[in-house]
Amino acid sequence: MRRPASPAAPLTRRSLMAAGLGLVLPTVANATVPANGRLSFAVFRNGDRVGEHMMRFSRSGGGVDVSTEAEMIVKLGPVPVFRYTHTATERWRDGDFAALSTQTNSNGKRERVSAEATGAGVRIEGPGGQVNAPAGTAPLTHWNTAAFDGPLFNPQLGKLLKVSVSRGGRERVQTAAGATVAATRWSVRGEAEIDNWYDEGGVWAGLRGRLEDGSTLLYRRL
């Protein structure tokens, strides 16, 4: 078990972050990204597929740049009742978080967040104003277990989060195609109730979270 990481993003309909597929190649600290530079997840709410979450990774300046696109639509019968889109760019340098920029449209409500590591810590600008976070703070974007070593912030709202993070055992996690892969579970508890799984290569393999309305969100790797 790792020491508790303060902050982690609450997994609500307004904080749907992630992606997955993978072979092993470059690493950021103890995080592994897929050899083909891409991760894709099918997203399910209470068993119904509602969208996809895609990530692209590229090597740059001794680190990794990550771009994220997520789109989800919840329907009541044939009628859309909730739409969500999220884009993000994320930079890690020499194993450390460097910067993040996100844009989110949550059923018509638009939010922007920017964050940058400085010599004094991490400066975060979000809908609620500026937050000066301690050094080692990172966004809870799920793909990178290195982030669990320190404080976490919500990449959609720009808020520090009160959570603990613990490493569990090896389990089998299902992919979108119905196969299963061996993976290690990491659990986030506190303001959020989230489980993430990482395959034998350390690549993000799946997610399960409880939403504010009590429904269950699943990410299954494509």
How would you characterize this protein structure?
- The chain has 222 residues and is mainly β.
- 0% of the residues lie in helices and 60% in strands.
- The protein has strands at residues 27-28, 31-32, 38-45, 48-60, 63-76, 79-93, 96-106, 109-118, 121-126, 129-133, 138-139, 152-153, 163-174, 180-190, 193-199, 204-210, 216-221.
- A hairpin with a 2-residue loop joins strand 1 (27-28) and strand 2 (31-32).
- The model is unreliable at 1-30 (pLDDT under 50).
In a nutshell, what does this entry contain?
With 222 residues, this protein is an all-beta fold.
Quick tags:
disordered N terminus; 222 residues; two-stranded antiparallel sheet; 13-stranded antiparallel sheet; mainly beta
Helix-strand blueprint:
Elements: E1 27-28, E2 31-32, E3 38-45, E4 48-60, E5 63-76, E6 79-93, E7 96-106, E8 109-118, E9 121-126, E10 129-133, E11 138-139, E12 152-153, E13 163-174, E14 180-190, E15 193-199, E16 204-210, E17 216-221
Parallel strand pairs: 11-12
Antiparallel strand pairs: 1-2, 3-4, 3-17, 4-5, 5-6, 6-7, 7-8, 8-9, 9-10, 13-14, 14-15, 15-16, 16-17
Helical fraction: under 10%
CA-based shape? globular
Biggest sheet architecture: 13 strands, antiparallel
Unreliable parts: 1-30
